[in-house]
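for the recovery benchmark. tokens below, seq after
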């Protein structure tokens, strides 16, 4: 099941509580929030990265008046429509640039999620609620999805919203989008990730921790690959938008010049 809405997140939370008896939300504590805040470095520079391209676009827009041969009507027409196109293009460029810049932060954040997962796994093993040798791998994946959607993603969005002035909500939305796509990609069977039993599994029947220990490196490898896919998917509409804006701007310049 892919997570797309808040209702999907609530359904995932209910599934984990009913099947495993664990409230993932309780791991969203002050220590986790503080650690996520330390890992998210890019919000300090986000205003500079996002606003610089629109400023450059505005300068280019003004400079274009000295290059184009415009009549009075063309001045008004180009002045209004051209300004809108240049500024929107600059803003899209800024957000697109930001998606390249925050890759390292999100990578560290997802890696940190595996350490949160260990705490969750330890609690589940203590409860030992219906865990068997056959379902441990499936439950480990379910728990990790819970950590991502119920702890990591909302905490990261809140941290960014609080750290970034003016455009914090927009940037938080982009980050939430990237992480959600990455988490869904990770959960998809297409990523080729499987949890296989090991000899240590036989020593502790009903425990998930041995599977976690043997799988954590693969978790990190696959989630990093999923993050790359997530960033590319989120970048795609911005790239398409920039191409369309560039085409419209060229058409506008052709018509007025």
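predicted aa per position
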């Amino acid at each position: 099941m892919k997570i797309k809405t808040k209702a999907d997140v609530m359904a995932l939370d209910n599934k984990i509580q009913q099947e495993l008896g664990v409230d993932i939300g309780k791991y969203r504590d002050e220590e986790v929030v503080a650690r996520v805040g330390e890992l998210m470095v890019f919000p300090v520079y986000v205003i500079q990265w996002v606003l610089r391209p629109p400023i450059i676009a505005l300068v280019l827009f003004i400079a274009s008046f000295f290059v184009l041969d415009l009549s009075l009507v063309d001045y008004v027409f180009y002045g209004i429509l051209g300004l809108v196109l240049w500024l929107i293009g600059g803003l899209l460029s800024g957000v697109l640039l930001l998606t390249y810049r925050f890759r390292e932060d999100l990578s560290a954040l997802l890696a940190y999620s595996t350490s949160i997962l260990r705490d969750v796994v330890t609690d589940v093993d203590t409860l030992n609620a219906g865990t068997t040798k056959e379902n441990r791998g499936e439950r480990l994946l379910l728990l990790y999805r819970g950590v991502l959607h119920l702890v990591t993603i909302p905490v990261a969005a809140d941290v960014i919203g609080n750290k970034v002035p003016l455009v914090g909500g927009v940037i938080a939305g982009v980050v939430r989008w990237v992480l959600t796509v990455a988490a869904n990609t990770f959960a998809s069977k297409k990523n080729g990730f499987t949890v296989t039993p090991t000899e240590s599994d036989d020593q502790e029947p009903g425990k998930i921790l041995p599977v976690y220990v043997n799988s954590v490196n693969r978790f990190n490898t696959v989630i990093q690959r999923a993050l790359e896919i997530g960033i590319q998917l989120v970048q795609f509409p911005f790239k398409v938008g920039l191409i369309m804006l560039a085409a419209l701007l060229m058409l506008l310049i052709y018509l007025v010049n």
